Amino acid sequence: RGMTEPVLALDSVRKSFGALKVTDDVSLSVASGELHALIGPNGAGKTTLVHQISGMLKPDSGAIRFRGEDISALTPEKRARRGLARTFQITSTIASLSALENVALGVQAKASHPLSFFRNAAGDERLNRPARAALDAVGLSKRAHVPAGSLSHGEKRALEIAMTLALEPAAILLDEPLAGVGKEEGERLIALLKSLKGRYAMLLVEHDMEAVFALADTVSVLVYGRVIASGDPAVVRADPAVREAYLGEEG
Fold it and tell me: Secondary structure of 165-214 in the HEC alphabet?
């Protein structure tokens, strides 16, 4: 059968702000079921790259392909509809609604006629069934009826992942899911991401090295907008250029 086409592929993507090259000829791909981690020091351009993949920013040149289609010109909404989901957009949860209602709204947004947005979301089994399944997948079944605003930081992160899963995506962009989460909740989130491995193509942008090396099938290192190394985590970790740029001697 040969190599199957990657779910998400960046091909020589470039983005400059004035004279500053923030994304400098970046190529990387995420295969079906693969967890690909993108790491790099602050200011490496990770956020700008994620914005280009999700559609908030247009690359100056190069192509972003998703399931074989060039999506470089599509809006974030159109990309999401095609199955490219991104977690942790700022407006992701509505604090006053329960965890279940938040996910049900996500399911409804995906439906073809999201007209009666708030009217009967709470009682509609067509929305609640997939919403419950998504909460179950992230370990929040017991918290289904708790208002999102009352959840702990780590639980909110898990809820945001549930909202993403409810969209039945083909690929998920995880933008620093462990940021600001304590050790215990961090371990729970790592276990959650581990449990999702193999079911989705995932691109994980993360500062927490322990998490990256516990989870990733492939690691790419971004420094000053360029990928300086990409491949098996153990090989990348041992790469002298990576150690110098990023991990320091203790890495």
Answer: HCCCCCEEEEECCCCCCCHHHHHHHHHHHHHHECCEEEEEECCCHHHHHH
Q: What is the DSSP string of 31-62?
A: -TT-EEEEE--TTSSHHHHHHHHHTSS--SEE
Is-contact 84 65, C-beta < 8 A? no
Residue-wise pLDDT tens digits, 4-62: 789 999 999 999 999 999 999 999 999 999 999 999 988 889 999 999 999 999 999 99
At position 181, the amino acid (one-letter code) is V
Q: Which two tokens stand for residue 182?
A: 């304590």
Tokens of 237: 């970790």
Q: Which DSSP helix (H) or strand (E) runs through 23?
A: strand 20-30
Helix (H, G, I), strand (E, B) or coil at 144: coil
Name the pTM for this structure. 0.89
Nearest to 201 by CA among 95, 76, 66: 66
179-208 confidence digits (pLDDT tens): 888 999 999 999 999 999 999 999 999 988
Q: How many CA atoms lie within 13 A of 176 on its CB side?
A: 11
Residue the block writes with tokens 């203790």: 250
